[in-house]
Write a structure and sequence with these properties.
globular, mainly alpha, 132 residues, disordered C terminus, two-stranded antiparallel ribbon
């Protein structure tokens, strides 16, 4: 867990940046010196488009788990080396694993539901009226 959590946090951040970018959200910023940089998770988790993509409850859970001081603040603690060895084995890190698995599973589940709906509409299905 001590090696996996930092990798997982950064992959979640990168995935959210990619999803928002693909949805047309600007995921970079230019400072007053003209230097372009990637927006960090602290700002990306408050993009309105993310609520459209994930839903309000999931976005709130990510905010509380990863970046909020009133929550677990895992992303910032990991990024700044503030997590002790024992903290990597707490319920919040397990919750991060579960939430990450859920995020990865959503597209797979949606595709399965769509494919199931298509196969249910196919001629000759057992439930279709008029089948002899």
């Amino acid at each position: 867990m001590t090696k996996a959590i930092p990798l997982l946090v950064h992959q979640v951040e990168h995935s959210i940046r990619e999803l928002l970018g693909n949805a047309g959200v600007i995921v970079t910023a230019i400072n007053k010196e003209g230097i372009q940089s990637e927006r960090n998770l602290n700002s990306l988790l408050y993009e309105p488009k993310l609520k459209e993509l994930f839903g309000e409850d999931l976005v709130f859970a990510l905010q509380a788990l990863l970046v909020e001081k009133f929550g677990s603040n895992i992303r910032n603690d990991v990024a700044h080396g503030l997590m002790s060895y024992d903290e990597y084995f707490t319920y919040v890190c397990v919750y991060l694993w579960w939430l990450s698995f859920r995020l990865v599973s959503i597209p797979v589940l949606k595709r399965g539901i769509r494919e199931g709906a298509h196969s249910a509409e196919a001629p000759g299905d057992i439930g279709e009226e008029g089948v002899s």
